[in-house]
Amino acid sequence: MAQTRLGRNENAAGWAFVMPALALIGLFMIYPILWSLWMSFQTGRGMNTTFGGFGNIQRLFADPIFLTALGNTLIFLAIQVPIMIMLALVFAVMLNNPRLKGRGLFRTAIFLPAVTSLVAYSILFKSIFSNEGLATQVVAFFGGPQIAWLAEPFWAKVVIILAITWRWTGYNMIFYLAALQNIDRSIYEAARIDGVPARAQFFRITIPMLKPVILFTTIISTIGTLQLFDEVQNITQGGPSNATLTLSQYIYNLTFRFMPSFGYAATVSYVIVVLVAVLSTVQFWVARDRR
Amino acid sequence: MSAGVRLEGLRKSYGAVEVIRGVDLDIQPEEFVVFVGPSGCGKSTLLRMIAGLEEITGGDLFIGDRRMNDVDASRRGIAMVFQTYALYPHMNVRDNMGFSLKYAGMKRDEIRRQVDEAARILGLEKLMDRRPKDLSGGQRQRVAIGRAIVRHPEVFLFDEPLSNLDAELRVQMRIEIARLHSELRSTIVYVTHDQVEAMTLADKIVVLRDGRIEQTGTPLDLYDDPDNIFVAGFIGSPKMNFLPVEAQGGALTLTEHGGQTVPMPPVGRRLEDGETATLGIRPEHFRKEGEANLEVTVEIVENLGGETYVYARQGASDILTIATGGVRGVRQGDRMTARFSPSDALLFTPDGMRIR
């Protein structure tokens, strides 16, 4: 189609406006993504790298630390995300009750962890679960055993799960609360008159109606957990004996703590990309509209 | 199957604010009762109190012979249709209608039979697999009615069910609801702010204002024989004209209409000379003939084809609405004589009570 001069000028002006942003996105996002894909086929240490084909991918399957980190990450994912989503839903439904007094206060209290600094709260959790920490004392007060929270592999995982649940439940709850407040109240009144029990109202009405939001939060939580880094780095440093080591932390170690192995670290990064893609597809499939 | 409803001194307060101030009402089985009144008169609150969605602050509610004040909404033998339809958006029409029956312990075959029967009555058979978002407003409201029908309630409650529909659908659904009532012979309590709905559907209209009943009666009773100026003004469309008058030697002087005199309507008591009152005359009671006449100047003419409404004034008086039948050719600025028969007019005291 022939363009008028005005049209061409407008196009040029438009491009001029978006160019700075495009240049920055290209330089700091698209270029690194493509470069890391290239790097993931490089082997060698430090700056001494050569093209290694699928060598890094073969190395993954023989690398016990990678397999431990993958296992840990998937355990965190499989246990923490469902617990957090359920908790967030329950809190949201409770806070949506107009007869509850002090709703604003509770809402703020539950959401507040989401705005605290990752490092600050991690250090707090580390102190709570230290040998003389609050958690240890509370357990002892109720006559429980002395638990070395951060020194035992099982309990270290529990602490990490508790920490991220504390930090992110309120964040997810806000999405549910917003969605719940958009549901017409008379739907619940109709259900009440029709004698639908409260449990069935929750499972047969509320949850199906929140399905799109639940799907959204599940996917962002999955991505977040697959990228889990700050908490483990600050609370357990991946210990004891790699019991809480996550994929992100392993990438960090490969790049910055050990003799730098950029190529292999890039390969592990792409494992996260593939996992996110696969899990998101599965979640969309599970939540598909069955008619 | 259908039960009566009895309200005895029913009250409702939110904190210090009393919204229902002592309502007594007797609804017979199979009766179609319409609560009507302006916004905020408490008609929806009263319906929700019958439904069990609002707590009752004082007085007694009986459905059938049982006192229902503290009985859960699901055990009152009622079903309700909401203004917003309140359908479950993730369920198809069949599941929407059958959902509650599952929790009533009904067998699957029986649910299917009940739902099919309701769908047949409402003409929904072809839509059973659709979801609410794929239905028109009228179809959604039919599904909501279907959901009520399958429960075989003793009393149906309708909360402004047609308010979200466009004018044409509203007329259609109105006819549908009237047909349903004659088919099901169930007790219906229906809330609306639309007096045409009230007039056309009701066996009995209850006019509410400020949480109190102003008058109860058949539609024509309220139209012909209103107890007070509020009911007279609320029932009938266009609204009744109200003219300030003063009694003078057995006739009425129109104080705001140039001191013109019209004959006294037939009322039971004699008005003292100098006593002020309000004369009420419906637009449709102005005719070509009549002993009383008003000289007016036309301001606005609304031609509806079969009916022509003339809005006219006499000097500085309030606007009078005159229904002239099919008369055409009336123009703005024309002078005309509006005649009426005094026996059609109503008289009210200054505080709004009817003088009979």
From TrEMBL, chain A:
Domain ABC transmembrane type-1, residue spans: 70-283
Organism superkingdom: Bacteria
Keyword annotations from UniProtKB, A to Z: Cell membrane, Membrane, Transmembrane, Transmembrane helix, Transport
Record bears the keyword Ribosomal protein: no
GO CC entries: plasma membrane
CDD domains: TM_PBP2
UniProt subcellular location: Cell membrane
Membrane-topology descriptor: Multi-pass membrane protein
Membrane-spanning parts: 12-38, 74-93, 105-124, 154-178, 209-229, 262-286
GO process annotations (BP): transmembrane transport
Xref: InterPro entries: ABC_transporter_permease, MetI-like, MetI-like_sf
Pfam family, any one: BPD_transp_1
UniProt-listed PANTHER family: ABC TRANSPORTER PERMEASE PROTEIN, INNER MEMBRANE ABC TRANSPORTER PERMEASE PROTEIN YCJO
Protein family according to the UniProt entry: Belongs to the binding-protein-dependent transport system permease family.
Protein name (Swiss-Prot/TrEMBL): Lactose ABC transporter membrane protein
TrEMBL record, chain B:
UniProt lineage: Bacteria, Pseudomonadati, Pseudomonadota, Alphaproteobacteria, Rhodobacterales
Gene3D superfamilies: 2.40.50.100, Nucleic acid-binding proteins, P-loop containing nucleotide triphosphate hydrolases
GO molecular function: ABC-type maltose transporter activity; ATP binding; ATP hydrolysis activity
PROSITE patterns: ABC_TRANSPORTER_1 (PS00211), ABC_TRANSPORTER_2 (PS50893)
The UniProt record lists the keyword DNA-binding: no
GO CC term, one of those recorded: maltose transport complex
UniProt organism field: Wenxinia marina DSM 24838
UniProt name for this protein: Lactose ABC transporter ATP-binding protein
CDD domains, sorted: ABC_MalK_N
Domain ABC transporter span(s) in chain numbering: 5-235
InterPro entries: AAA+_ATPase, ABC_transporter-like_ATP-bd, ABC_transporter-like_CS, ABC_transpr_MalK-like, ABC_transpr_MalK/UgpC-like, Mo/tungstate-bd_C_term_dom, NA-bd_OB-fold, OB_MalK-like
Keywords: ATP-binding, Cell inner membrane, Cell membrane, Membrane, Nucleotide-binding, Transport
Protein family (similarity comment): Belongs to the ABC transporter superfamily.
